[in-house]
Structure formats: C-alpha cells, structure tokens
Amino acid sequence: MSLLNGIFPKMKMTRSSNQSTIVSLADKEYKKDRPLVKMCGITSARDAAKAAEAGANFIGMIFWPDSKRSIPLPIAKEISRKRWFLAGGVNHMNVCEALSILRPHGIDVSSGICGPDGIQKDELQILSFMKAVHSVHY
Q: Topology of 7-134 in CATH?
C-alpha cells in the first residue's frame, strides 16, 4: 500500500472499563491534501492521548538510553495498543528483540544506520538493519 494512495489510521481516544486511557486508532481515509504527522518522544499514555487528540496519525517512542525521552520496553508496551512507530536507538543488533516484543506498525531509523561519522548512511549498516527487520514476522 502506497503512502500516497492508501487508507491510513487516524488516532482517536477510547476508554476501557477501568477508565484507564488507551490510545487506539480508527481507519479513516487518508486526506491527500494534508501531510501525515508522527509525534515522537512519547513517554506516557497521557502524552499519547494528547497526540491523538491533536490529530497525530502515528506516535513514536525512543529507546536510546542517552535520550531524556527514553523509555523502557515494558512502558512502551503499555503505551502502545495498535499502530505506532518505533524510533530512537534502534540498530541491527536490537531491532529484532524490540520488534518481537513491541510489535510496532513501523520503525524509524536514523543513527542506527550511520557510519562512523554519525552523519553519512553506511551501506553495510543499512543492509544489516533491513536483514534483521525482515527476519521478524508478526
């Protein structure tokens, strides 16, 4: 499904029977005249709810331990309910475990595929990352 002509989820808020906030997604037709929005650095269900209420299409969570917005996997699993992107600190060595545990809809990688200079993308890092991602099946 192409980003430009597919159907995409739109975040909305629901409440469970115990009144805890859950971020879920409803399928809505993607409006081609508006860009998709991913709000990254989500650290709590409250922040996810704010993003949903504001109209974000996706949320991202950061696992790089040196980030002030880094969260542990159990917290991320609690925040995520349906569709979201995994981001931050992901590389070919940890992506399989993170994907298997969290089962995100997508993954956002940047520094995890960089060469030694931290700027230029490294072909071997890219290939290793993609091989790891493609080894995971939901």
A: TIM Barrel (3.20.20)
